Amino acid sequence: RSIGDIVQIHAKIIYTGRTSLHVLVRVEAGDVHDRNYALAMHCVLVFVAVDEHGSPRRVPAWAATSVVDLELHQLASERVTSRRAIQDAMASQRYTSAGTVPETAFRFLASPSDVNRQGTVRGGTVMRWVDEVGHACAAEWSSPRAVAVYAGGIQFHTPIRTGDVVELRARLIHVTRRSMHLSVLVRAALPGDTPVLTARSMTIFADVECGSAQP
Question: Rounded to two decimals, what is the model's pTM?
Answer without folding.
Answer: 0.82
